[in-house]
Specification:
By secondary structure, the protein is mainly alpha-helical. The protein contains six helices and two strands. Helix 5 packs antiparallel against helix 6. Its EC number is 2.7.8.5.
Length: 188
């Protein structure tokens, strides 16, 4: 199940990272770079939903795909956040919160899997809401202009990325609360 269509789509999110970063080094006007990076991010982020849908629809789910999918998401989000910090469109504190949480929860999930308690830190709705808000905030910040000559995506993106940081902390606390009883029970 290494090269199924859903898995290939997941790989595209990882391949997209240097492409999105590279756009900001192209010799063109900033609004055009912003637009290209935004469209690329949206297209590649959409593969997150599409690869899961296709895996279920085509009966091509696999343990490797289940592993790679969240890794690809985290790489895409973290790389985009670093670009936004570099462009002074996102606060470094927000990036540290989001990236730190991703590392901490990934490590927690790995540890919980090792002690046979991975179900206690399974994906919860708060994590999905956090991801959705991030996936809206990031393209707004990448675009950094007026959408339909009305919506200031920079301002909306700032609000959304901070809301995402709050949801990030909330989801981390939730997962830790679920994990602590399992950890205590198995480390005595």
């Amino acid at each position: 199940m290494f090269w199924t269509l859903p898995t290939i789509m997941t790989w595209t999110r990882i391949v997209a990272i240097p492409l999105i970063v590279g756009v900001f080094y192209l010799p063109m006007a900033e609004p055009m770079r912003n637009l290209i990076a935004t469209v690329m991010f949206i297209v590649f982020a959409a593969t997150d939903w599409l690869d899961g849908f296709l895996a279920r629809r085509l009966n091509q789910t696999s343990a490797f795909g289940a592993f790679l999918d969240p890794v690809a998401d985290k790489f895409l989000v973290c790389a985009s956040l670093l670009v936004l910090v570099h462009l002074n469109r996102a606060d470094v504190f927000v990036a540290l919160i989001i990236i730190g949480r991703e590392i901490a929860i990934s490590a927690l999930r790995e540890w919980m899997a090792q002690i046979g308690a991975s179900k206690s830190v399974a994906v919860h709705m708060i994590g999905k809401v956090k991801t959705t808000v991030q996936m809206i905030a990031i393209p707004f910040l990448l675009y950094d202009g007026r959408l339909f000559k009305v919506i200031d995506t920079g301002v909306w993106g700032q609000w959304l990325i901070w809301i995402s940081a709050v949801l990030t902390i909330w989801s981390m606390v939730y997962y830790l609360q679920k994990a602590i009883p399992e950890i205590r029970a198995r480390t005595k």
